[in-house]
Amino acid sequence: MLPRKSIIPEEFAFSPALVSPIPRKPVFRDRVNKARFIAKSGACNLSHKNIREQGRFLQDVVTTLVDLKWRFTLVIFSMTFLCSWLLFAMFWWLVAFAHGDLDPNRKPGVEQCVTNVNSFTSAFLFSIEVQVTIGFGGRMITEQCPTAITLLILQNIIGLIINAVMLGCIFMKTAQSHRRAETLIFSRQAVIAVRNNRLCFMIRVGDLRKSMIINAVVCLQVVRKTTTPEGEVIPIHQIDVQTESAVAGNSIFLLAPLIICHVIDKDSPLYDLSEMELQCSDLEVIVILEGVVETTGISTQARTSYVTEEIQWGHRFVPIVTEEEGVYSVDYSKFGNTVKVATPRCSARELDEKPSILIQTLQKSELSHQNSLRKRNSMRRNNSMRKSNSMRRNNSALAVPKVQFLTPEGGPNLAVT
Question: In the record, which residues are listed under signal peptide (predicted)?
Answer without folding.
Answer: none
